Amino acid sequence: MTNTYETSAQQWAIYVRDLRKSYGSNEAVRGVDLQVATGEVFALLGPNGAGKTTIVEILEGHRSKSSGEVSVLGHDPGSNDQAYKRRVGVVLQSTSVDQYLSVEETINQFRGYYPQPLPLEELLDLVGLREQRRQRVKKLSGGQQRRLDVAIGLAGDPELLFLDEPTTGFDPAARRGAWEMVRGLKSLGKTVLLTTHYMEEAEYLADRVAIMVQGRIVALGAPGELSLEGRTTTVRFRLPEGSSALPAPFDKLRANEGEGGAYSLETDSPTGTLHALTSWAVEHGVELEELSVTHPTLEDLFIDLVGGDGENGGQA
Question: Regarding beta strands 233-238 and 41-45, do their DSSP bridges make them parallel or antiparallel, or are they unpaired?
Answer without folding.
Answer: unpaired
